[in-house]
Give the backbone structure.
Amino acid sequence: MTSPNIVPPLTSAASSADHHGAGPVKHAHTAISGAGLLIALGIIYGDIGTSPLYVMSAILKGARVPDLIDETLVLGAISCVLWTLTLQTTIKYVLITLNADNNGEGGIFSLYALVRRRGAWLSAVAIIGGSALLADGVITPPISVSSAIEGLRAVYPDIPTVPIVIGIIAGLFLVQSFGTQIVGKAFGPIMFVWFTMLAALGILWIVQNPQILKAANPYYAYQLLVEYPSGFWLLGSVFLCTTGAEALYSDLGHCGKGNIRISWIFVKSALILNYFGQGAWLLSHLNEPLDGRSPFYALMPSWFLLIGIAIATVAAIIASQALITGSFTLVAEAIRLNMWPKVKLNYPTDVKGQLFVPSMNRLLLLGCIGVVLYFRESTNMEAAYGLAITLTMLMTTILLTVWLRSKRVAGPLVVGFAVLYAIIEGSFLLANLIKFPHGGWVSLAIGGALVGVMYVWLRAYYIKRRLTEFVKMEPYIEPLKQLSNDESISKYSTHLVFLTGAERQSEIESKIIYSIFQKRPKRADIYWFVHVETTDQPYTMEYKVAELAPDDVFRITFRLGFRVQQRINLYFRKVVEDLVRNKEVDITSRYESLNKQHVTGDFRFVVLEKFLSVENDFPTSEKLVMQAYFYIRQFIASEDQYFGLDTSSVKVEKVPLVIAPPREVALTRIK
């Protein structure tokens, strides 16, 4: 077995019952502090913080009057942005949703883990929301980076931006495997500079045209949506100002709700000042042609333009980085909730939250490059952006409503919350639907493909679990002891370890018994059966040991949180070391010559990998699900890599998955 540098803080469930299901000790930065506030700025506000780059451009384009700056449009748009950030981001997410933390962790899958026992239908809600959030991760890097780089056209009108954007995005994905520990330390100060710049530029123009302050009156938002031609449909563009709210909730565990709430005061103030500044600039140019100018870059003095573009580009890269790492975390959670294939996960550093998923990194890179090549301009990407994330927010609202009921919040308040946000987000969704033929179908197609994968994986998990045959362990204890002492059979391994899905200590899969006794008798000195249970808490790390036969048969059950790295090889070694230290087991080799030298016996893991048997006759729906499941399985790593097992000591055995064998076989004997 591999020798680890760091031993994880596993806790014996038997000796620490009082910590059953407890989450991790909170990191220092989750307490409210200057460092924590700076970390929050760097980690969670990248997406929502770069929205001023493109929101007003999208609204003006959506109004179909890009060459005529209209006062009703400007005041109404700024008012809509202000009240969207207030109702959607501040009230729903910062004040309400952050309370729905799962041992300090946030995000749609963490919220689902809190409420999933209240109805199987909630898995569909989580799948749709998670898939839409991942689809958003494909659109965000291209639109953020493109919006920043296109500012160069104010200085170099003919510059080709597409190659630059693709180069930045490709470089961003290539460095993911090294982790972002060093770069991450600089994110906070850089984003502080970015938000300070947003506020300063906004104030500069508000002072010149304070008339824009009238937009704080919600009447102007009402006037735009109800009285302005096609005003309601502009909500699809207005919605872009709050797309990062879901990412804010997902990163709760990195910063803590206190740091998020306090830092949001600064962030929201900077965003509002900049939006009002853009509105003030637009009011200063009423009835003038826009000539393709960006309201954001128009705020900058000419001498500051290149500096501003550079800062905007770095902020866009940080926003992209946050979405990429968020996607990795989302996939890791989905895996442990049986909603995603068990792909390989890497942990490039020891920092909490540092995760790299090679397969997802490649998929996101290809998706982002495809989006850039297809849309080419950020204004075109706006049509694809927002539609998917609206679905995520609606799904979060559903899960949050169930969570509020579980917390026994007063019924009228729960109903009021559900109705209010169903109306708000339903309106955003309806307005976003006009984007479908103009590019919105791209994000929905990506999200739909991800929904398909998640559905197939979860459905296949339940089909396999239903059809896995378990037998009582007790009748096989004595045969295992006899096999262990049968010297007429060559020894397979000193220690033989099987991964078992049996939740009950008294049971074992019949396939494991078949593998030990019949497929090829596997004689070992000690048999170990290891079961991994994923808990609804994010960072549970517990284990318990059952001695089924003294010094011959042991069962170890790991209880790991849905955000814990599945390094079973390392954890198993730690448990065995504890057992040896407590003199509960002797792992010295039982070969006479090696025993005298006190040599530790070898360990071999056996992983049973199922394949679809040709002897099957089952319902069409299940047949399609299982065929899709095994087709996807061809393109992913085997389970031994996912569980972190040392490949030099692992034996993978193929076993048939028989759904339902044909009931009648029409064979006739002839002479």
